[in-house]
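Annex B.
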Amino acid sequence: MTSVQNDRLYGEDGTKSLDFWLHCETLYSRSSLHRFEIDIHRHDSFLQILHISDGEGDASLEGRTHTISPPTAIVVPAGFDHGFRFSHAIKGLIITVLPAALPAAVRANLQNTFSRPTLLSLRDHPDCDHIHHTMERILLEFGAERSIRNALLESYITTVLLLLTPENATTRQPMGQDAERMVRLGTLIDAHFRQHQRADFYADHMGLSTTHLNRIIRSQTGLTLQQMIAGKQVETAKQELIFSHASVQTIALHLGFGDPAYFSRFFTRETGMTPRAWRVAEWQKQAKLTHYLGKAST
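Helix-turn-helix domain-containing protein: predicted structure tokens.
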């Protein structure tokens, strides 16, 4: 399998691609295409969840090899090298999901608990059966055509990720007051970043001075508040550039930029490419990936 970077997985039907944020398939269907060996690669935009219910194999995560002894779950955040070798008897599912599409609280949990690739044995997990059945529901719902499909998929993914969270995660990685404030700040930014609010708006909502808030942000992330907001704006702009055929001007207005030319300069400063150039480059990558997925489904 070749290296996949900044990719978006979506269904082969172009009419469905505008609201895509998740892909699901069996491990057998994916790995059998490559003689059950998935070479080292990474997904720069996606989180992957593997649930192995039967068979055996090895997982290469960040250069280290781990033996897979089912039932096992593997969570691979975006941006990390990973590869797999499976037996021909492998059974299970692989889910690829856009983290930005998940609720803010779930994203915060991911950052706190699954900041790096993690292999979890489910042999003695109290919710092993629940996780297995929920994963099966995701596969079933992924192939469904109904209005509540995306809402159900979001709820199932949330359930799986929260159930996979180790019960002692809070003990191992306690979320202090500042970390809790960062979760709250993330929720506020999600709700108001299109309004281009000033720093004092967020500080007031959190009952802090602007100086104190910036100090917390810097200590927790190494960023400034404006950099966090800009990151959210760029992330959302990229989603809309990929997921829709709306013009750059329309996307700029949707993100609260009254001047599309200023939005283009902002995006170029943050990414090194104009919005149009970035969109074309990504669509070219996705055309190759769609062809690859089409081969996988035949």
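The beta strands are 22-26, 37-41, 47-54, 57-61, 64-68, 72-76, 82-86, 91-97, 118-121. The longest helix spans residues 275-296. Further annotation is deferred to the next reporting cycle.
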